[in-house]
Design a protein that fits this description.
The chain is of the alpha/beta class. It has six helices and seven strands.
Length: about 190
């Protein structure tokens, strides 16, 4: 792929791992941009705006690099489910998701500040949970640290215990839509 040196505007180990599937070498520079939480602009647009804010904040420090910012949110009935504050909130989120379909949306922004070029995209994946009992939820919470995960779950960590099906990109649910990012980088 021919593009400028790449910077990932995230310190997420999951995003680092997924990006390595596409680009073996890049710089990791976590963004400290403040995320918006205004759902009135729409779920997809909210993820895009947050990805853009992250990418642009890091691009100021790396004007000659291609900077990738991303933001992933879980939405149930058009309501964002962020990272739980504690295990009680995680239990409640998993209980709400049980037996239902929700969407995972990741906004991605690629920006090259020196040339004032940017590309914005978003990927949506539909995830169906198994019906879950209180014991199922406790079993899952005993196996997975969920406090740093939107929606209180991780597909890549014992996801089979709670997820019945995934319609769309699996990597999107983990935090970066690999297929879409690969295509965007190739088109760059």
């Amino acid at each position: 792929m021919k593009h400028p040196p790449l910077v990932l505007a995230s310190g997420s180990p999951r995003r680092v791992s997924l990006l390595r599937e596409i680009v073996p070498e890049f710089t990791v520079a976590p963004s400290h941009a403040t995320e918006l939480h205004d759902i009135s602009i729409g779920a997809r647009r909210l993820c895009e705006v947050n990805a853009q804010r992250k990418a642009f904040s890091v691009a100021e420090r790396y004007p000659d690099h291609l900077v990738l910012g991303a933001d992933t949110l879980v939405f149930l009935d058009n309501e964002p489910l962020g990272k739980p504050a504690d295990l009680a909130e995680a239990r409640a989120m998993l209980g709400r998701l049980a037996g239902r379909v929700h969407e995972v949306i990741t906004g991605v922004c690629l920006v090259h500040q020196r040339t004032a070029r940017a590309r914005l995209l978003a990927e949506t994946t539909r995830v169906r949970f198994h019906p879950l009992t209180a014991a199922d939820i406790e079993d899952y919470l005993a196996k997975v640290h969920v406090l740093d995960k939107a929606g209180s779950y991780a597909l890549q960590e014992h996801g089979h215990l709670i997820v019945a099906s995934v319609e769309g990109s699996h990597s999107n649910v983990v935090g970066l839509p690999v297929e879409a990012v690969r295509a965007a980088l190739a088109a760059w």
